[in-house]
Amino acid sequence: MKPGPRQTARLHADFDALYRRHSREVWALVYARWLNADTAMDITQETFLRLWKQVEEGEDILNPRAWLLRVARNLAEDHAKSAFRRNGTQPPQTLNGVRGHEPSPLDTLERKETFARLRHELRQLADADREVLTLRYALDYNAGQIADLLGVSVTAVHMRLSRARQRLAERLTARGAEP
Amino acid sequence: MNLLETPPADVNAVCPDDLDGLLRAYFRAALPAPWPDVPAVSTTQRHSLPRSRLALAASVLVLVGGHFLLADRFSDAPPVLDSSPGRVHATRVNAEGQAKKARPTTTRDAATRTTVGTGRR
Predict the structure, then answer these.
(1) Choosing among B12, B27, B51, which should be mutated to test the A contact, i.e. which has the most A CBs within 10 A?
(2) Mean pLDDT estimate for chain A
(3) Which of these, A98, A102, A147, B16, could form a disulfide with A107 (CB 3.0-4.6 Å)?
(4) What's this model's pTM, rounded to 2 decimal places?
(5) What letter does residue A62 receive in the DSSP assignment?
(6) Neighbouring C-beta atoms of residue A27, cutoff 10 Å
């Protein structure tokens, strides 16, 4: 029996609400894994499409947030093995996952170089450290929000943030960058 | 261009002496803007109940129905107690109505079995 229009509209409304509420968090966790904005968005979209499929089939998901984060993490790990991973050239606007907004070519170049160095150092960090950094600086989450999302203590979040920042400062200073 | 002029303030400029500023600028630059809309989805299912629930209900009906069918075909009448003194045993009536005595269980049998089991008398 085909779902009625009211049921369909409700499904869409619930799905839209979940997307608005959790899509940035999902993106942030995937970005922390790959440090590539386009890949993170692809996986985020795929995650929500899978959520829709579950919702459409009438499956009850008690904790949508946890479900989304778990699926996103799995898809992020599978990305390395998947055939659709793109190795081609990226458009200039998304070079190294960084979008340029500056009018000055020199500023743009310096900015990209700095970000490239930072991105290189971020890759050397543990996944858990990158996650807290991404949630903190991309989404402006406080330690409590990060702890709640990752399922760890606030103390652990503070320790990871402090450790990650210290390591980045040391590495960037050693490489001649300007933290 | 006058190189002595202070460049205009840029909210996205990287502050070299501030790691926090650098990190925030980096991650904010990576964040898609504007944020993409919710992915387009369509309703494709045609069932009001999930298939799995219908299959489960059908399976339960088959099991229950099969149980009653088999029970009616092979079940016997309730056992009749034999009131002979010293022995109590059940007399079962099969489907054709013929009595069939069950072997009674006595204490001596139990002892015999025990003796056989241990190899001693």
Answers:
(1) B27
(2) 85
(3) A102
(4) 0.62
(5) S
(6) 26
